[in-house]
Amino acid sequence: MSYTGWILLTASLVGLSCGTIGVLLILRRMAMMADAISHTVLLGIVVAFLVTRELSGYHMLIGAVVAGLLTSILIQWLQSRGVQGEASIGVVFTTLFAVGVILIATKVGNAHLDVKHALMGEITFVPWTTVHLPWIGDIPEATFILSIVLLVVLAAVIGFYKEWKITSFDPALAASIGIPVVVMHYAFMSLLSITTVAAFDAVGAIMVLAMLITPAASAYLWTDRLSLMFVLSGGFGVLAAVAGYYTAAWLDTSISGSMAFATGVLFMISFLASPKHGLLSKLLSPAVAAE
Fold first, then answer.
1. Cα 116–chain centre separation
2. Which of 74, 194, 254, 275 is the most buried (most CB within 10 A)?
3. DSSP state at residue 128
4. Has domain 3-206 been given CATH number 3.40.50.410?
5. Cα-Cα end-to-end distance for the chain
6. Which of 56, 57, 70 is nearest to 100 (CA)?
7. CB-CB contact of 276 with 38 (8 Å)
8. Which residues 6+ apart lie within 8 Å of 221 measured at CB?
């Protein structure tokens, strides 16, 4: 596959996995949790580097997953102590992210690990770090990891589709019929953390956040069917990845930033043109009724 092809495939995998998880985020009204985890994984990455003094390897993934789960646990703990949801997310998110930034500034030194890279990523470097797979050959490591994450996400969503649906729309009903709501919540947090971490190094926190929230929010405007919402959200993520790449090539600018911008353009189109919830359909409905 060509250099451009690997970049597009990797970005599309980010769009698919984040778009799928994003639907549950939107339905559970937990969009800010994505913002928190997409930033606090920086602390896990920095700590993993300080322990191993290596910038690549699965220890970075493990450290970031632990940081993501720690974020979720701390937020839930503060909420159980009476702190409001938005406040608990804000406190944990800013504190852990700030600790990561301070450690980079004071402990990392001359290593190629900086805040700009963490926020914006560098997807153009993805094709250069490869792994060898039997019968397949050399493929980018990020592409391999994101492929596994996508399979895990799809298996979890499809395998527990009914449980996700009930716990997202009516947790009280789910608990009354014996569905372990707390277990499902932390399973979801684990999926969110793993997906965020897998995409973090390649595309950075800004694009991860955009892909987690905006495609799902766009899909929500087009349909009320959960299954179709998953499909549309993943499709919007892939479309934004492809459109963003070619926009960046045309303007000679940040690829991840252009992909994030493309998700916003798709949302504005959905906000204006969706047949049921779009602004234009709402404006035209009174006129049609009057006729």
1. 18
2. 194
3. G
4. no
5. 57
6. 70
7. no
8. 270, 271, 274, 276, 277, 278
Which range, of 4-13, 33-42, 147-156, averages the lowest pLDDT?
33-42
Average pLDDT, integer, range 90-116 = 73
Place of tokens 């938005």: 86
Amino acid at residue number 121: G
Could you report the per-residue pLDDT of 272-286, keeping only the tens digit for each?
Answer: 988 877 777 767 666
In contact, 244 and 260? CB cutoff 8 Å: yes
Using alpha carbons only, what angle is made at residue 87 by residues 86 and 91, rounded to the nearest 5 degrees?
A: 120
pTM beyond 0.90, yes or no: no
Instruction: Give ∠ CA 35-261-145 in degrees, rounded to 5.
Output: 60
Question: CA–CA distance from 64 to each of 18, 83, 147, 193, 196 (Å)?
Answer: 16, 25, 18, 8, 9
The CA-atom distances, in angstroms, between 122 and each of 141, 158, 200, 266 are: 14, 32, 10, 23
